[in-house]
Design a protein that fits this description.
The protein is of the alpha+beta class. The protein has four helices and five strands; from the N terminus they run E-H-E-E-H-H-E-E-H. Strand 2 and strand 3 form a beta hairpin.
């Protein structure tokens, strides 16, 4: 499942569907000069683990087409790696278009995550 929605309530909804159906979920978002990509795999940290609180960002710049294109390219690249690499490890990828920097951060499952716990029950 691919996410390119523009608000956290929709993203959290897709996240809950992916957890319930046990399907991979590839999240991507762009706001101002930043993009982010996260692969959510069954049994691994989910979107709510990584972003427990919805923080809608200001839209002073809007969605610049080149930022959207670059972020979605990274999202699709993560999907291709998921399909082709046995040792694919999901991480949060942030893109800073003001400084032209891409960073990869490890993600952890939260023991108190309300969405992951629903699947465990």
């Amino acid at each position: 499942m691919f996410d390119a929605t523009d608000n956290f309530s929709s993203r959290y909804f897709l996240n809950s569907i992916a957890i319930e159906k046990e399907v991979p979920f590839f999240h991507a978002a762009v706001s101002n000069y930043q993009g982010q990509v996260l692969a959510v795999l069954p049994g691994r940290p989910c979107l709510k683990c990584v972003f427990p609180e919805a923080k809608e960002l200001s839209r002073e710049v809007g969605a610049v087409p080149s930022f959207v294109q670059e972020t979605s390219s990274v999202q699709v690249n993560e999907f291709i790696k998921y399909l082709t690499e046995d040792d694919f490890e999901p991480s949060l990828i942030t893109l800073d278009f003001k400084e032209n920097v891409l960073e990869r951060s490890g993600v952890s499952k939260r023991k108190d995550c309300p969405q992951c716990q629903k699947k465990s029950d």
